[in-house]
Write a structure and sequence with these properties.
Rossmann fold, GMP Synthetase, Chain A, domain 3, nine-stranded mixed β-sheet, 15 helices
Length: 510
């Protein structure tokens, strides 16, 4: 099976000047993509990274991050993809967890010199070399073709939200994403005539297939931007005649909310792939009506890949009110809380076996035992319904996540950080409904006697601890005592109901 690097080399030979990536200030051809990734690979080999070593990559979305990922592939090392908005606490965790010995970045991140961070990390027992993007030197004479990673080899580790602390690390080979690609081609009638635009961060599952894998296999250009902007996205769609857009639900709602949407030329757009959270029917229908594009989605996870999906052959009701039909190759089954197969009942927690599965979690036997049953079924963290026609609908989540703009935020992880504030006795993080982002982080706290706390003070404390931006609370509620359930645990459902009631009351008074 032809690898990603081999596909790039073939495109570079067949049509070297055709565009691979387009962004505001850069156009990268297939020949440049091949050459720049060769230079990255050569530098890694010259720096004595051995096959199988892990090198973390943290770069803004743009051509450079793809060159770095493919450079790792060509050098035979495993890339550790870190999202561009990660805080240093998360970065340190991922470097330590994966045993990464290289860190490929820009000189600064989040206003701090990365070299200083790496030096502190190494003084604390780490062994990481900082590799500055663009400073790798010529190095192109080194031949590394015999080290290229194959389609069945591990090529990427990326993070996924955990329920009890820092992210877990998912293990990927290319074959699973090639299987995903074939599903996408079928559902969206994708072809070599398409122009892609992905505004989803490249290292994560949605971003991997929409900006790194599928456009490369098709040999088509992909439009990317370092930071999402509704206005810039609309302008780029018109300028580059984008036909396939990939965006989480929050992002396409932000496009609709932009004044520029009314005058933007979206006549080239035919498909919007979305997901990351429940797709809002009314807004998705509005997007279809105003743009002329069909809204499609896959249901699944970073771990499982696609479990179900909608297609151009589906009517609007199935496309926008469900997660589509289950994919036969994924052999979906439903299980109850005791682990019994309840597929016949049409409601339960889905498990699957099939070609889009990841290899599970890196060096995490406990998490893998929860992810993969002893009989081999890989589980998702939702309760779903499945009708006789094979249409799947998500009812709710079993895990304690807050999904802000398509980003899974662990409630317990937020609570652990909030609890480090000296005034906080007990904390509970819950999802606060939001019309733009779907959900935002709301934190309820009990305070220690004689103390006080407001949101600005709490956020400043968390920033000082280098917590990622998405995990910062956006509302703080102080209670004399958090409600408890019969088992003594905090009754989070009561808190969710409380914040919904407060928001509803405030809206009624507005």
């Amino acid at each position: 099976m032809t690898s990603i690097a081999e596909h790039i080399a073939e495109h570079a030979a067949a049509r070297p000047e055709a565009a691979a990536y387009l962004c505001a200030d850069e156009r990268m051809s297939w020949s440049e993509y091949d050459a720049r990734s060769n230079a990255v690979a050569a530098h890694l080999v010259q720096q004595d990274f051995a096959p199988g070593d892990r090198v973390a990559v943290l770069l803004p979305d743009g051509p450079a991050v793809h060159c770095a990922l493919v450079g790792c592939e060509k050098a035979g090392v495993v890339a550790v993809g870190i999202g561009p908005r990660a805080g240093y606490k998360e970065i340190e965790h991922l470097l330590r967890k994966t045993g990464a010995t290289g860190f490929w970045t820009q000189p600064t991140h989040e206003g701090r010199e990365v070299a200083d961070f790496v030096a502190d990390l190494n003084r604390a027992g780490g062994d990481v070399r900082h590799l500055v993007d663009g400073a790798e030197g010529p190095g192109v004479a080194t031949r590394v073709r015999d080290r290229w990673i194959g389609a069945d080899d591990v090529f990427l580790l990326n993070s996924t939200s955990g329920t009890t602390g820092m992210p877990k690390v998912v293990v990927h080979d290319q074959r699973r994403w090639f299987a995903f690609h074939e599903l996408a081609v079928a559902t969206g009638a994708l072809s070599g005539d398409d122009v892609f635009m992905s505004v989803v961060p490249a290292p994560f599952g949605f971003g991997i297939w929409t900006s790194h894998v599928t456009p490369t296999l098709l040999g088509v250009p992909t439009v990317v931007q370092a930071r999402f902007s509704a206005e810039d996205t609309l302008a780029a769609i018109a300028r580059h005649r984008v036909s396939v857009l990939a965006a989480v639900s929050t992002q396409f709602v932000m496009l609709l909310e932009s004044e520029a949407f009314a005058t933007a030329d979206l006549s080239s757009l035919r498909v919007l792939y979305t997901g990351g959270e429940v797709v809002p029917y009314a807004r998705a229908a509005e997007f279809e009506d105003r743009s002329g594009a069909a809204v499609l989605q896959f249901y699944g996870s970073n771990e499982t890949g696609a479990v179900s999906g909608t297609s151009l052959d589906d009517d609007r009701e199935r496309r926008l009110r469900s997660s589509g039909r289950v994919i036969p190759e994924m052999q979906v089954r439903l299980f109850d809380e005791t682990g019994q197969d309840v597929t016949a009942s049409g409601r339960g927690q889905p498990g699957c076996k099939g070609p889009t599965l990841s290899r599970g979690y890196w060096d995490d036997a406990e998490a893998n035992a929860q992810l993969i049953r002893k009989d081999g079924w890989m589980m998702l963290g939702d309760v779903v319904t499945l009708d006789g026609d094979g249409t799947l609908c998500v009812v709710g989540r079993t895990d304690d996540f807050i999904i802000r703009g398509g980003k899974n935020i662990s409630g317990p992880a937020v609570e652990q950080e909030v609890a480090t504030h000296p005034a906080v006795a007990l904390a509970a993080a819950v999802a606060m409904p939001d019309p733009i982002f779907g959900e935002r982080v709301c934190v309820y706290v009990e305070l220690r006697p004689g103390t006080s706390l407001d949101l600005d003070e709490l956020v400043a404390h968390l920033r000082s601890r280098q917590v990622s931006k998405e995990s910062l609370p956006e509302r703080l509620e102080v209670l004399d005592a958090l409600p408890r359930g019969s088992g003594g645990k905090v009754a989070k459902q009561k808190l969710r109901e409380d914040i919904r009631a407060k928001l509803s009351s405030a809206a009624g008074l507005a």
